Amino acid sequence: MDRRKFILGIAATAIPLALPGTVMAGFLDAIMDPNSKESKILSGAQSVLASSQQMDYQSERTIGERLAVEGLRRYGMPVQNKNLQHYVNLVGMAVATNSPRPNIPYRFVVVDSDVQNAFACPGGIIFVTSALLGVMHTEAQLAGILSHEVGHVALRHALKSIQRAQFFTGVGQITAATMKGDKGAQFESMIGDLQNVLFDKGLDQNMEYEADASAMETAYRTGYNPAGITETLHALQKLEAGSTKRGSWFSTHPPLPSRIAKNQTSMKKYPDATTLAVLADRFKAQSK
Amino acid sequence: MNKSAPIIAAVAGTLLLAAPALAQEKLYVASEGAKLKADKSASSDTVAELPVGTALSVQGQEESWYKVSTGGKTGWIYRGKVAATPPEASKQGGDNLFGGAGSSTIMVSEADSARSMRGLNASEQEAAKAAGRPVRPLSDYKQALDRVLAEKVDKKELENFLKAGRIGEYAK
To answer: Which domain holds residue B135?
Structure first.
C-alpha cells in the first residue's frame, strides 16, 4: 500500500475525532481551497512525510544542530577535558566506521550532567553525559553505548518518529487555528516534536531494541566484546530504583529487564565474544 | 511415473544443497576504510583500499579473515568489514566519515524566523531557572557546538588507536 495513502487514511479517521462538528465543516471548506492556511499547513505536513525516506543530509544535520543546542542547554555544557573528548571521539569513530551508515561525519561529546543519559541528534551529533560515563568501567561498554546511539542515527529513528507524529501535531494546530503558516513556525514545531521525543518521551520501544541489536553487531564487527551495551544497562538497572530524574535514561528508554533479556539472547550470535577487546585499563586511564 | 520427475527432483535437491553455499560466495564491503591485505594479518601489505559496496568473491575463510577476490586482485579482508548484502546506497548525501563537520548553521536557521529566536530565549530562561544558573547568551551555545564539531579524528590516528588497543583486525 502506498505509504502516503495509508497516512492520509489515518488522518481522515483522526480528524473527525480531533475536531467538533462545526469546526470540522469549516475545516473541510478551508482545505478545499488550496490557498487556505489549513491547506498549506496540511501540505507542509505531507511534504515532511513524503520526504521521510529521502531527507538530504544537510537538512538532517541542520535539524540535528538545533537539537544539539537544546541538548547542551538541558543537560549541560561539554566537559572541559580535551583528552577525554578526543578519546570518546576515537571510540565513537571506530564503531561508526563499521556501523550501518559509515559515511557521515559523526561527532561525540561528553556533557557535564549528573543525569545518566545518552542521545543522538539526527545527522550524527551524539551526546553522553558525564554521569553515564561514570557507571562504565571498560572501553567495550563505552563502545556499546556509542554504537547504540550511532544506530539511532544510522536507522534515522528520531526523524521517523516525528514523521509519524508531525501530521497529528499539524491537525492539532489547525484546531487551535492560531498558528501562522510560515516556514519558521513549521520548523519550530518539528523541532519541538523532536525535543519531546529525544529529551522527554523517548523513542519508540522497538527502535530501542533495534538500536541495541545494531549496537551489538557494530561493536562486534569493530572487534569489541558486544556485551558492552548490556553491561552498561546492568549498571543502570542497579541505579534505577534510586533514580527517576526527568530526562534520564530511565524516562527516555524502555524498561531495562526486557532489553537486557533480549540482548542476552542475541549474544548467542557471537560465540567468540569473550575473545574480543574489552580494554578496562585504557578506559580507566582515558576517562579520568 | 513421469520420466522427468526424478530428474526435476534431483535438480531441485541439488539446488537446495547448493543454495547456502552460493549465498556465501559473494560478500560486500560494508565498512569505511576497508583494506584488502596480502595475508590474513593487519600488518601484511595492503593490496587495495576497498570502497563501501565493493562486491567480493569469497574463496575461503580462516580465523577472522576471508580470502576474497575483486577486480582481478586477490587478498584477505577482516570479517568485520563485510556483509552478506550490499549496504544501502548512499542516497543521504553524506559522503565522508572523516570529513570536516564545518561550523554550525544554527544561526542561519534561527535568523530565518524571529519566532524561533524568541522560542530559544524563552527556553534558555526556563532551563537556567531550573538549573539555578544565570541565563547564558545564545552565542555560548553556538561556540560550544562549534567546538564539538571542530573535534576531528583522522584515519591514521584511528588506525593507531585500534592497533594500540589490539582491536578487530589488529587483535593478536
So the answer is: 106-150
